[in-house]
TrEMBL record:
InterPro entries: LysR-type_TF_proteobact-type, LysR_HTH_N, LysR_subst-bd, WH-like_DNA-bd_sf, WH_DNA-bd_sf. Belongs to the LysR transcriptional regulatory family. The keyword Phosphoprotein does not apply. CDD domains: PBP2_CrgA_like. This is LysR substrate-binding domain-containing protein. It comes from Corallincola platygyrae. It comes from the Bacteria. Residues 1-59 form the HTH lysR-type domain. Pfam families: HTH_1 (PF00126), LysR_substrate (PF03466). Keywords: DNA-binding, Transcription, Transcription regulation. Gene3D superfamilies: 3.40.190.290, Winged helix-like DNA-binding domain superfamily/Winged helix DNA-binding domain.
Length: 296
């Protein structure tokens, strides 16, 4: 074990919270993690972790080591990138977390092209709607749609993601097409329970005047993809992110309603830890996201 391996292992154990989680993050065995920690403690002649059968915790010496080692490891990685520059290709594994609908339907089809461009990079994609702890889970990059309110993270906006009012042609032929916001109250609407607005849908007219319409609904669902599918099956009017319904609008299976009005608009963000240095591999992926989704 060299010093860098030991340093990486200590940092991984601190951030992941256990030897097992650190082993998963580093791609090595738990036994090897334990061995590296023991060797580091022996070299430094201090105990870095207090161990019990249930948990581990940092000693004061371990906390000081982590606080000093983290920026050193970042500076070493930056030095490597700076010296190698464009002479070598970005390499390593990028662990990415993305929302389910966006990850499955929109991000995943773009990944083969990225991998073809950067043959020395590997991707580990975590598709989930749950919030993740980037440090504990070893996540390099989080893709999020919506607000970012964690001051420990840096959020780089890739694109705007407006919500659009949509319904199927068959539903509109049977129930009529709303011409103004208040007409929505006479229609069956599909509620996405992910949004705090519930059945009070906000709309902004071309002059910038805002109003909320109380809509009637017989179905609530916590998936934007499900909202669009119900709408396509003539189940009512849905309020869905543009990226979800874009193809359906193009092929005619959905029709946008009240196009002169705006509703909620969320941002598509690439999020990474608030650290001084961002690795080349992650920078390359963020730039790729901007290329593929930045003008949508």
């Amino acid at each position: 074990m060299d010093t860098l391996d030991g340093m990486r292992t200590v940092i991984a154990v601190v951030e992941a919270g256990s030897f097992t989680a650190a082993a998963d993050r580093l791609g090595i065995s738990k036994a090897l993690v334990s061995k590296y920690i023991g060797e580091m403690e022996s070299r430094l002649s201090v105990r870095l972790f207090n161990r019990s059968t249930r948990k581990i915790s940092l000693t004061d010496a371990g906390r000081r080591y982590y606080e000093k080692a983290t920026p050193l490891l970042e500076e070493f990685a930056e030095l490597q990138d700076d010296l190698l520059g464009e002479q070598t290709e970005p390499q390593g594994t990028i662990r990415i977390s993305t929302p389910v609908a966006f990850g499955e339907s929109f991000l995943s089809p773009q990944l083969p092209e990225f991998l073809a461009r950067f043959p020395k990079i590997k991707l580990d994609l975590l598709v989930t709607n749950n919030r993740v702890n980037m440090l504990e889970e070893g996540i390099d990059l989080v893709i999020r749609i919506g607000r970012v309110d964690d001051s420990n993270l840096i959020a780089r906006q890739i694109a705007d993601m407006p919500l659009l009012l949509c319904a199927s042609p068959a539903y509109l032929a049977q129930q009529g097409t709303p011409k103004k916001p208040e007409d929505l109250a006479a229609h069956t609407c599909i509620i996405d329970s992910n949004y705090k607005i519930g059945n009070h849908w906000p709309l902004l007219d071309p002059q910038g005047n805002s109003e909320k319409v109380e809509v009637v609904s017989r179905v609530r669902v916590n998936s934007p993809r499900a909202v669009s599918e119900i709408a396509k099956a003539d189940g009512g009017i849905g309020l869905s992110p543009r990226y979800i319904v874009e193809q359906s609008l193009k092929d005619g299976s959905l029709v946008q309603l009240l196009p002169d009005y705006q509703s909620l608009c969320f941002g598509l963000y690439a999020i990474y830890p608030h650290r001084r240095y961002l690795s080349r591999k992650v920078r390359c992926f963020i730039e790729y996201l901007e290329e593929k989704f930045g003008e949508r």
